[in-house]
Design brief:
Elements (H helix, E strand, L loop, with lengths): L1 H4 L4 H22 L12
Organism: Chryseobacterium viscerum
Protein name: IS110 family transposase
Length: about 45
């Protein structure tokens, strides 16, 4: 929603999210470690 308010196209937003998910998944696989969510949501 934040990027959409900045005027970004929806496909660009979806592509960025896909890349983040894929890169984190590959990092977990190659490092052979569990995923640790360190991102804290700010209300």
């Amino acid at each position: 929603e934040r990027k959409k308010q900045e005027g970004k196209h929806s496909l660009l937003i979806i592509n960025n999210v896909k890349c983040k998910i894929i890169s984190r998944a590959f990092a977990v696989i190659f490092r052979n470690t569990p995923f640790v969510n360190t991102y804290k949501f700010v209300a």
